[in-house]
């Protein structure tokens, strides 16, 4: 008669799921794996259809949520970018042939500024700096 210790007869199978708590799908698959041989294969095939249906529904639900958030962001952007909608563009002929003058106006930015007569204005300011050698 062979002498066996209790630790040699003991066998235990366990599964560990990384990343926190097990989902409901993982719990159901674990329960199916524990069933007896003919039923575990049948249940696994049937559950595969249920799982496909679940993930398609989850995808549709998530996409609907994303679409709602996109609409909210678009509404927010529309409110924030009203400034660009008040912009007007005007093209006038200029003194230079084949070169039109382009005038872009925005009511919020202008705030009552008046249009100048010339497109480029030059101002001359002369600053007199005393020569340090003249003081001697």
Summarize the structure.
The chain has 136 residues and is mostly helical.
Could you explain how this protein is built, in words?
The chain has helices at residues 6-9, 24-33, 37-80, 82-85, 107-110; strands at 87-92, 101-106. It has 136 residues and is mainly alpha-helical. It has a domain at 19-110. It has a two-stranded antiparallel ribbon with strand order 1-2. A hairpin with an 8-residue loop joins strand 1 (87-92) and strand 2 (101-106). Helix 2 packs antiparallel against helix 3 (37-80). The radius of gyration is 40 Å and the shape is elongated. The model has no long low-confidence stretch (mean pLDDT 82).
Which keywords apply here?
9% strand, mainly alpha, elongated, 136 residues
SSE run = HHHHEEH
The end-to-end span amounts to: 126 Å
Measured as a percent range, the helix fraction is 40-55%
Strand content: 5-15%
- Extended strand count: 2
Label the overall shape: elongated
**Total number of helices:** 5
Give me the oligomer status.
single chain
Largest sheet: 2 strands, antiparallel
Strand order of the largest sheet: 1-2
Radius of gyration over all CA atoms, rounded: 40 Å
Please state the structural category.
mainly alpha
The parts where pLDDT drops under 50 for at least 5 residues are none
Average pLDDT works out at 82
């Amino acid at each position: 008669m062979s002498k066996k210790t209790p630790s040699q007869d003991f066998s235990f199978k366990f599964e560990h799921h990384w990343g926190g708590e097990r989902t409901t799908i993982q719990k159901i698959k674990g329960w199916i794996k524990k069933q007896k041989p003919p039923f575990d294969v049948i249940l696994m095939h049937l559950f595969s259809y249920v799982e496909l249906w679940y993930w398609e529904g989850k995808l549709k639900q998530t996409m609907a949520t994303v679409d709602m958030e996109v609409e909210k962001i678009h509404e927010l952007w529309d409110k924030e970018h009203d400034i660009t909608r008040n912009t007007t563009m005007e093209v006038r002929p200029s003194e230079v042939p084949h070169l039109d003058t382009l005038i872009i106006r925005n009511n919020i930015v202008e705030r009552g500024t008046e249009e100048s007569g010339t497109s480029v204005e030059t101002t001359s300011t002369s600053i007199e700096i005393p020569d340090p050698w003249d003081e001697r």
